[in-house]
Amino acid sequence: MKKLALTMGTAAMLSAGFSGQAFADTHQVKKGDTLWGIAQEHNTTVDQLKDWNKLNSDLIYPKQVLTVSPEETTYIVKKGDTLFKISQAHGVSVKDLMNVNGLSSDLIHPGDSLTIKTGGNAIAPAKQEIDAATSVPAPAPQPAAPAASQQPAQEPAGKEMTVTATAYTANCEGCSGITATGVNLKENPSSKVIAVDPSVIPLGSKVYVEGYGYATAADTGSAIKGNKIDVFLPSQDQAVQWGVKTVNVKVVE
Q: Residues of the signal sequence (predicted)?
């Protein structure tokens, strides 16, 4: 197992079980960035980026800060410790602890030095806007809106327009399922994505679509011109059911 030499400044930390910590490197997302591109730039993988930043989809937003290498903490095992207890305290899995430290069993002893790697908490974009693929942003406390309609607890502020909204799906013959910004919709069918005319709604914008919820302008289409959008839905039946609607759209960021 990895050992870490202690200085006088860290010796006092032993009583709490810690002997040192290295903070994670971060990357601030720019317009046009994709998880794949960031992973290539920082010599890691998309899966690792999603794990370290607790992402449930490939959707990322400008100004979002992502961990691109894990925080590394050295923990000194105390009497009564177990891998399960340590994993729960640090928000990691027993499997990860064993893999990082090269353990073939969960047997540990007082005085052992364990390396704990965590991704930390990714900093959300401005206005506390959370990934729309998994949840609706939570503004100041108000009665929760019905999950089925995905209505926001508070109307967002921003540029507003009326558009014609159609729907599309990635599950069609010849469809790649990859959006113009690199989102794989076949692998992430719960993503909230719309196709836009970039001259009207810039790619990467966070928007609120009446009847659809919060989404990201992450795709384009040859028929999507002017005040028209295409909302992504996971199945053909849902896309057909959506039909053609006139809806209000607010550009939040």
A: 1-24
